[in-house]
Amino acid sequence: MTRLRQLPTCLLPVLALAAAGALSGCVTHRANPMLSRAVVDARAHRDVDKAAVCGPLSSPASVGFAFGEGQLNELAAPALNEAGQELACHPEAVALVVGQADGHGTDAEQRQLAQTRVNAVAQDLRARGVPAARIQTQIQGTAPAGDPRRLVVLAEGRRW
User: Fold this and answer.
1) Contact in structure between 59 and 154 (CB atoms under 8 Å)
2) Which DSSP helix (H) or strand (E) runs through 33?
């Protein structure tokens, strides 16, 4: 500090500019990250083949519930995430949510449990942006197979 005071005052602005110039050189070096093919295509306004990005529907998706429960838990999240992404990739597809029960209790209790599970899954899919018109529900049955425009989501529980 005493040395700066010993310098002539006309040199202080020059030293300040030199220090600022030296510091600015540190900020100019930036890493150039690699862009994904989708970003490059989007910037070039090219159409990307959706089938190459999304792939076919992988039906059925299985959403598991705890025994006797109709509430979704954290173990159901991966299957619901995948189903939501597939439905977003395929806007023409319809989700068929099939509610199943555990096989214990009266028929009325089993129907109620299956309906509760169907409602929980359908509500979660709607929260993920799937329109209600694209969600069909069915309880206590098996889903029709062989429709490539339908993603079957099984809301099933443990059968003991």
Assistant:
1) no
2) none
First vs last Cα of the chain: how many Å apart? 82
SS3 at position 50 = helix
Cα maximum dimension of the chain: 98
Determine the 3-state secondary structure of 101 from DSSP: coil
Alpha helices in 35-92 (DSSP H): 37-43, 50-54, 77-89
- Burial of 147 by CB count in 10 Å (0-12 exposed, 13-18 middle, 19+ buried)? middle
**Amino acid code (one letter) for 101:** A
Nearest one of 91, 29, 27, 99 to 65, comparing CA atoms: 99
Chain length of the chain: 160
* pTM greater than 0.70 (yes/no): no
**For 60-92, what is each residue's pLDDT tens digit?**
888 888 888 889 988 888 989 989 998 988 888
